[in-house]
Structures are given as C-alpha cells and as structure tokens.
C-alpha cells in the first residue's frame, strides 16, 4: 500500500511509463556491465538521486521500502563470507570480502534502479506498459487480480483486527498472538472464497478476453522519452567505460 500511495503522489506520476521503464532498464543493465566498485556506487547514487530528488519520493518511504531487500542482500553477503573446510567445520573467510562487497554493490545498484520504477509508476501504468511490450494477457490478468486482492485482504484484515480489539482480544501479549493467529486463519478462508466468487463471476459472463483499464494519457511522451534516453546513455557510458 505504501508503494502504491507513493507512486500516485510522486512528482513523476504524469511521466510516461516507457520513459521511466527505459531508465530503470538502463540502470539494471549498467549495474550488470560495470566492473569497478566506484562505478557501481555512482550508478546506485544516481538512481537514488533520480528517485529522491527528481521524483520527490520521501526519504523515509524510500528507506522503508528498501529495508526488506537490503536485509536480504546483507544476509546473503554474510553467508558468502562463511565457507566449509575439509574436516566438515566452518570458518570465517575475510579473503572473500572484496568479492562479496562487489556483489553487494551490484545488487544495490540494480535495486536502486528497480525502486526508481516501482515507487514512481502506478500499477495500472505498469500493466499498460507491459501490454504494449506484448506480455501474455494471462500473466497481466493474474497481476491485476493479485493487485486487487491486496486491497481486499488489507480491508478485511483491518476490519477483523478492529473487531478483535473492541472485544479486548489484543489485551496482553498472549491474547494478541492468539487473536492474530485466528485472524490469519480466517483470512486464508476469506481470500479463497472471494477468489472463487470472482472466478464464478467471470465464468458467468463468459469472460474470454483480458481485463482492461482506462488508458492514461501522457501528452509530453516524446520529450520525456528523449530525456530518459539521455539519462540512460549516461548510465550506460559510465558502465561501458569499465569494460573498455
């Protein structure tokens, strides 16, 4: 929900999705091509500055969204620094630190490019962009249904949690854990029932085509694509300099 609200409120909400998608793709390709740690750090910084300063995404929101993937990267890097020895034991391998740091910087640079896209582009615009890229309609329909079910699930969870709190179901840590478990079990049943009802409604209407949304208009698409190409060329030039 935080990502969706940020995408609708950011400064780049009216920028063409193709321009933002091209810049994000260039950032990911540049992160894959770059070799030097300094270049990877610059690529990550440029993508972050574009999102924070260009799109005006709040820093607190950016850090909150990036916390989970960054934690995964950190945990993965720590596990790579532990290797098995010949006698079946484990040891710390500080000699692998430069390699692991390089992998971490590349992951952060790619992550910054992806966050720049998802935090500035609403889901309907992403679906429209993927449809123009000839993505299979079945996959797009599944994405749209999952997107809708997130809001349904959140509303049902909030209503259930409010009802439990009104009946003192959250009084004390033990009761709170028990109430959360009961609510999670009920939510699984509700999601299954609502998904079945949605499938029955589609079958009753003989739905054979994809789900359609009102397309958004972007009158300055050409200018935005031109600026996106220039910024993408800058990122690619930085990464190709390491290869040459």
Keywords:
9 helices, single chain, 244 residues, 2 domains
Description:
With 244 residues, the chain is mainly alpha-helical. The chain folds into two domains: 2-121 and 217-243, no CATH class; 130-204, no CATH class. 75% of the residues lie in helices and 2% in strands. The protein has nine helices and two strands, in the order ααααββααααα. The chain has helices at residues 2-9, 17-33, 37-54, 59-80, 97-118, 123-132, 137-166, 173-204, 221-243, and strands spanning 82-84, 90-92. Strands 1-2 form a two-stranded antiparallel sheet. α2 runs antiparallel to α5 (97-118), α2 (17-33) runs parallel beside α9 (221-243) and α4 runs antiparallel to α5 (97-118). The protein is globular, with a radius of gyration of 23 Å. The two termini are 43 Å apart.
Compact overview of the structure:
By secondary structure, the chain is mainly alpha-helical. It has helices at 2-9, 17-33, 37-54, 59-80, 97-118, 123-132, 137-166, 173-204, 221-243; strands at residues 82-84, 90-92. A hairpin with a 5-residue loop joins strand 1 (82-84) and strand 2.
**Can you list the strand order of the major beta sheet?**
1-2
- Helical segment count: 9
Radius of gyration: 23 Å
In total, how many beta strands?
2
Portion in beta strands: under 5%
Poorly predicted runs of 5 or more residues: none
- Average per-residue pLDDT, rounded, comes to 84
Broad shape:
globular
* Assembly annotation: single chain
> Structural class, from helix and strand content?
mainly alpha
Query: What number of domains?
Result: 2
The biggest sheet, with number of strands, parallel, antiparallel or mixed sense and barrel status, is:
2 strands, antiparallel
Order of helices and strands: HHHHEEHHHHH
CA distance, first residue to last residue: 43 Å
Give helix % range.
over 70%
